[in-house]
Structure to design on (487 residues):
């Protein structure tokens, strides 16, 4: 597996870590213009750290669902092309405004990822959807946003078991979410995000 | 060239406020190659210029929307819960006056807001009764207003503070936000302070050395405190305050819902109530 263009491994204070170039966002270490990408704080960062083949090459058009405060989306905007970031909560959007101030191809949308028709008039067809939404019905979010994905595009998704059902075994939750995903996607890879994120599963898929 | 559905459809160059409104309120069933369409229809000179424009408009639209949503949020909730309390308190006070007055005129006079309601729906026989009924109507109207405000709080609190509302219930969540002065200041308070919010008199008496430390403030209204036997109530109050504090911080700093908090609180209270752990 190779890292996307624009993502590299560098040494920060003696430890090897992923890095992208851009303005720092969340207090991460920087060195010679590179900013450290901390896998414990980013599910996509953890995927790269664990060697998941995301299919991301760098420079692609991205729809990012569940941008939160922008920890991950800031790195994505550093290595990807035009990046559309959807986030529903106003408080994290305030942090995202800071992130977007330094990234002129990052487009913020204060929208509900469960209602893609409210942003289809802005978002163009994309090469990749990166999804990290902490809500019940994560498969449905991926399915309803499939309309944005090009035929050869990739869905890069972190499923959070506890958002679906806190009382059930994570593996059972993952199986259900994947079954539902299969109605619209072909699953290419799946991998646990431990030890960086408990009870999270990375799923790579393409539209079918 | 059909750009119907595009955010820039029929928006003239430089009309930023219309463009922002279209970003916020527009809809389309499906995406399209908007950058190419914008160039082909002359909305932008080239794709780079389109993206520059899109960045500036989406950022401004997000900023405005954030400001509006936040203005509508915790401060509104604070006013709603205070207004509800004022209405309830005033209704009760006036109901007492109604009862006292009614006692001098009617043999079967009752008391409270419920009695004021009875008076309003009953028959009036003379002028003095009409004044009494009119006063009772104010009581009923205030009580109805309080109920209406409670409904407002029950629908808004879960938007403003989803985790806090789930753990505390919408009304107690609103009271805590109100007592702290806002969600941000609640999120910055230590759990020990949240535990005694609303018990300031007892806390100051304690600090002056004349009273035991209060074990709970307004969180006493939560079933997990009031429904726990007195010997373990302090532990229950501490556990509840701890989780409510975490919930308020998540609501303020992140905003996403974490259902696992509910389960952790339920477990903790169950342990305390079964006497398995007094800590």
């Amino acid at each position: 597996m190779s890292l996307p263009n624009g993502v590299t491994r560098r040494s920060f204070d003696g430890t090897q870590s992923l890095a992208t170039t851009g303005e720092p966002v969340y207090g991460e270490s920087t060195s010679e213009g590179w900013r450290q990408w901390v896998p414990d704080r980013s599910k996509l960062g953890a995927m790269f750290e664990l060697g998941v083949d995301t299919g991301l090459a760098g420079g692609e058009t991205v729809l990012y669902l569940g941008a939160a405060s922008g920890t991950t989306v800031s790195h994505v905007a550093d290595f990807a092309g035009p990046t559309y970031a959807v986030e529903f909560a106003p408080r994290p959007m305030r942090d995202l405004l800071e992130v977007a101030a330094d990234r002129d191809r990052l487009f913020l949308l204060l929208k509900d990822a469960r209602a893609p028709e409210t942003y289809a008039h802005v978002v163009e067809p994309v090469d990749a959807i990166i999804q990290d939404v902490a809500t019940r019905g994560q498969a449905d979010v991926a399915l309803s946003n499939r309309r944005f994905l090009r035929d050869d595009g990739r869905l890069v998704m972190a499923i959070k078991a506890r958002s679906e059902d806190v009382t059930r075994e994570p593996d059972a939750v993952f199986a259900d979410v994947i079954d539902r995903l299969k109605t619209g996607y072909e699953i290419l890879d799946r991998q646990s995000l431990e030890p960086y994120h408990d009870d999270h599963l990375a799923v790579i898929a393409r539209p079918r | 060239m059909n750009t119907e559905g595009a955010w820039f459809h029929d928006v003239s160059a430089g009309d930023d406020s219309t463009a922002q409104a279209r970003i916020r309120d527009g809809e389309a069933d499906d995406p399209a190659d908007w950058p190419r369409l914008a160039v082909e229809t002359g909305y932008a000179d080239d794709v780079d210029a389109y993206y520059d424009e899109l960045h500036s408009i989406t950022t401004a639209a997000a900023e405005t929307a954030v400001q509006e949503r936040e203005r509508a949020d915790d401060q509104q909730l604070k006013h709603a819960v205070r207004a509800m309390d004022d209405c309830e308190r005033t209704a009760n006070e006036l109901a007492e006056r109604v009862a006292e007055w009614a006692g001098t005129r009617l043999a079967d006079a009752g008391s409270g807001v419920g009695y004021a309601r009875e008076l309003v729906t009953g028959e009036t026989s003379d002028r003095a009764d009409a004044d009494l009924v009119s006063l009772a109507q104010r009581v009923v109207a205030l009580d109805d207003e309080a109920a209406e405000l409670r409904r407002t709080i029950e629908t808004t609190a879960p938007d403003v503070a989803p985790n806090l509302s789930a753990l505390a219930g919408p009304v107690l969540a609103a009271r805590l936000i109100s007592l702290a002065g806002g969600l941000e200041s609640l999120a910055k308070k230590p759990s020990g302070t949240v535990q005694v919010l609303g018990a300031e008199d007892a806390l100051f008496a304690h600090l002056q050395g004349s009273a035991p430390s209060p074990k709970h403030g307004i969180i006493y209204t939560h079933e997990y405190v009031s429904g726990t036997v007195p010997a373990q109530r302090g532990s229950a109050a501490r556990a509840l305050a701890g989780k409510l504090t975490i919930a308020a911080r998540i609501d303020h700093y992140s905003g996403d819902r974490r259902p696992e908090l509910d389960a952790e609180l339920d477990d903790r209270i169950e342990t305390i109530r079964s006497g398995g752990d007094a800590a």
Summary: DSSP finds 14 helices and no strands in chain B. Chain B has two domains: 73-159, 161-279. The longest helix of chain B spans residues 127-160.
